[in-house]
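Students often ask why inverse folding is considered easier than folding. One informal answer: many sequences map to the same fold, so there is more than one right answer. In these notes we will look at a single instance of the problem. The structure comes first.
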C-alpha cells in the first residue's frame, strides 16, 4: 500500500475524476486494454456497487454524494478491477491511498503521477475518459 498527502486548490469533483483517470491509466500499463470496472464506492450516505450485469457508472447523483463526502472531510473507499488487477483506493480531500494485488509497482506509479496532478489547477485528463465512467445520457 502506498499513500500520499497533498494540498490542492482543485475542486473535489476534479479530484475524483483525476483519481479515477490516473488509477485506470497506470493500471492499464500492465493490464492492457481490459475494461476498467468500478466495483464499489463507499460514501457517508451510500455504498454503490454494480447491479446485476450492469456496470457501475459515476452518475451526477453519485458524484454529488462523493463531493459532499469529501467536502465534509470524510474519505471515500473505492474498489476497481482492470484485467486481473484488483485495486483499492481511499480518497479524501487531502490524502490518497492505493493498494493493488498483482503488480505492486503500479502503486508507486499512481502515487508519483497524482503527486503532480493534484497540485495543478487544470489537471491532465483524457477527454474520452469521462464518457467511459459516466452514464451516456448525462453530461
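Output (designed amino acids):
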Amino acid at each position: 500500500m502506498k499513500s500520499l498527502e497533498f494540498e490542492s486548490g482543485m475542486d473535489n469533483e476534479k479530484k475524483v475524476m483525476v483519481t479515477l483517470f490516473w488509477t485506470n491509466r497506470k493500471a492499464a500499463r500492465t493490464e492492457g486494454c481490459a475494461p476498467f470496472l468500478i466495483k464499489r464506492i463507499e460514501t457517508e450516505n451510500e455504498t454503490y456497487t454494480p447491479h446485476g450485469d450492469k456496470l457501475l457508472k459515476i452518475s451526477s447523483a453519485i458524484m454529488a454524494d462523493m463531493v459532499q463526502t469529501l467536502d465534509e472531510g470524510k474519505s471515500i473507499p473505492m474498489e476497481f478491477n482492470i484485467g486481473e488487477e484488483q485495486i483499492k483506493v481511499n480518497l479524501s480531500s487531502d490524502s490518497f491511498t492505493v493498494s493493488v494485488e498483482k503488480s505492486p509497482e503500479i502503486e508507486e506509479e499512481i502515487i508519483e503521477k497524482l503527486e503532480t496532478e493534484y497540485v495543478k489547477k487544470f489537471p491532465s485528463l483524457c477527454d474520452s475518459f469521462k464518457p467511459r465512467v459516466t452514464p451516456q445520457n448525462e453530461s
